[in-house]
């Protein structure tokens, strides 16, 4: 799997591609973050107001919107993505 993080003002978009049949596992991990049960080694998810997941041709796109007055740290988001993808790969 590979991903790309793009900042758009205060919001962040992440596109995950080459999922290789792990869509269900990936969506379950993102749903946990949406619900505040994120297992990532960062507290960045506490800044989230919303996390939306959209299917795209090559995989999925995430749209992260921070709470008012918060700013998402792209490096921390990257740490979380690396952690999440490693967990999914290990589950194979």
Q: Could you characterize the architecture of this molecule?
A:
- It is a single chain.
- With 92 residues, the protein is α+β, with helices and mostly antiparallel strands.
- The protein has a single domain (2-90), classed as 2-Layer Sandwich (Gyrase A, domain 2), CATH 3.30.1360.
- Helix content is 32%, strand content 34%.
- It has a 4-stranded antiparallel beta sheet with strand order 1-2-4-3, with helices on one face.
- The longest helix has 17 residues, at 74-90.
- It is globular, with a radius of gyration of 12 Å.
- The mean pLDDT is 88.
List keywords for this structure.
alpha+beta; 92 residues; globular; 2 helices; Gyrase A, domain 2; four-stranded antiparallel beta sheet; single chain
Largest sheet geometry: 4 strands, antiparallel
Order of helices and strands: EEHEEH
Give the low-pLDDT segments. Answer: none
Could you give the distance between the termini?
13 Å
For the CA atoms, what is the radius of gyration? 12 Å
Structural class: alpha+beta
């Amino acid at each position: 799997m590979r991903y790309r993080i793009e900042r758009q003002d205060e919001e962040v978009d992440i596109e995950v591609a080459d999922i290789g049949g792990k869509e269900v596992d990936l969506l379950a991990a993102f749903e946990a973050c949406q619900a505040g049960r994120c297992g990532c080694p960062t507290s960045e998810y506490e800044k989230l107001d919303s996390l939306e997941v959209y299917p795209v041709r090559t995989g999925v796109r995430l749209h992260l919107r921070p709470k008012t007055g918060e700013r998402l740290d792209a490096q921390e988001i990257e740490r979380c993505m690396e952690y999440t993808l490693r967990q999914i790969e290990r589950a194979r």
